[in-house]
Design goal:
Elements lengths: L6 E4 L4 E2 L2 E2 L9 H6 L1 H16 L15 H12 L12 H14 L6 E6 L4 H13 L4 E5 L15 E10 L4 E7 L2 E6 H5 L8 E6 L1
Antiparallel strand pairs: 1-6, 2-3, 4-9, 5-6, 5-9, 6-7, 7-8
Helix pairs in contact: 2-3
């Protein structure tokens, strides 16, 4: 039975040449392909806010038409701050620490970060997602282990990706997840109920 869409909001995103956002799989460096998702989430954040909020110093190139070479070069700058490691950038605090150092070196304090841990209730997560998207803020999302490891979320486990939209249904919230140069719609209810005690969460931006 088809559910009624109660509300929907999608952020205007960007392309890197033909790719919807950056594509981690295209990096020649295996450490970036396998463990660069945290750095890439920070890159996407910088490009997005440079385009939408005029915070130009977050991204060292022009932000309207983005070439793969420019994106690639910028990602390797960000790799210095969010370096791939054996267990990945596996906490919100590690992301905030590394990205915070980049923001300090960029001499910009307009973009602030708040950790929203996966220990919050699903209802609180729904409210946070809708509020952020309605305020035109994308959301870096960290998912660690998940009980449905062979389902639609398979490629998004132990991974940072971006949320850039939501669609309210009668009994769930669908979220627009961006990674690997494409976007997919997932159930936030399923994402949030990981089945594990150690959880990821979301970075909430404030300008």
């Amino acid at each position: 039975m088809k559910q009624t869409i109660l509300d929907k909001n999608e952020l205007e995103y960007f392309f890197v040449e033909e790719s919807y956002g950056g594509n981690q799989d295209l990096f020649p460096d295996v450490t970036m392909r396998d463990g660069g998702c945290g750095a890439i989430a920070a890159c996407e954040s910088c490009i997005y806010f440079a385009r939408t909020n005029g915070i130009k110093n977050l991204y060292p190139h022009q932000s309207q038409e983005i070439s793969w070479k420019e994106y690639h070069d910028f990602a390797y700058v960000m790799k210095h701050y969010l370096c791939p490691r054996p267990n990945g950038i596996n906490t919100l605090e590690l992301f905030m620490e590394g990205f915070g150092e980049y923001l300090a070196d960029a001499h910009d304090d307009r973009l602030q970060m708040e950790a929203f841990h996966g220990t919050h209730t699903y209802e609180e997560a729904v409210e946070a997602v809708c509020r952020q998207i309605d305020n035109a803020c994308l959301i870096p999302y960290l998912m660690l282990k998940h009980k449905n490891e062979k389902g639609p979320l398979e490629d998004y486990i132990w991974h940072w990706f971006i949320l850039a939209g939501y669609e309210k249904k009668e009994d769930d919230l669908l979220v627009k997840a961006i990674s690997y140069g494409e976007h997919k719609w997932f159930s936030l209810k399923e994402m949030w109920d990981t089945g594990y005690d150690k959880k990821g969460g979301m970075i909430l931006y404030h300008i």
